[in-house]
Amino acid sequence: MIKPNGALVLMMVMIIIAWSPVLPVSANVQASITNKLGGGKNLSLHCQSKDDDLGQQNISNDASFSWEFSVNPWGTTLFFCVLGWESVGNYEFDAYSFARDRVRCENRCAWLVSAEGIYGLNDQTGFWEYVYSWPAP
């Protein structure tokens, strides 16, 4: 069996990186989560990435929480949120995942939390898409 030379492997990796196209990244992405539960229900929300903790939020009905961030050049940017309200507790969802959202919400990633589930705005089509459903009781 032939064992690869460390210098040869390093050189191959450098060539692959040099010839790989640079990931197209936008300067900033605006993310928002809007409470559309109705009936005066409050939404508890805690969003974070590997590097940024946005803290605990309490969002009243028809109000929104938003933040802005830059996509990293490696294409691994991920913001996830844990939310809860009177019928659902500690539900986790990805509010931004580069792999899923780089086209769907390139500059604006908007979410609506409703009693039916979570809807995401598709910037390409202009339509709200049903993305997440609540777990069965």
UniProtKB/TrEMBL annotation:
GO CC aspect terms: extracellular region
Main location: secreted
Coiled coil location: none
Alphabetized UniProt keyword annotations: Secreted, Self-incompatibility, Signal
Domain of life: Eukaryota
Protein location: Secreted
UniProt GO BP: rejection of self pollen
Pfam families reported for this sequence: Self-incomp_S1 (PF05938)
Signal sequence segment: 1-27
Family of this protein: Belongs to the plant self-incompatibility (S1) protein family.
The name this protein goes by in its record: S-protein homolog
Species annotation: Trema orientale
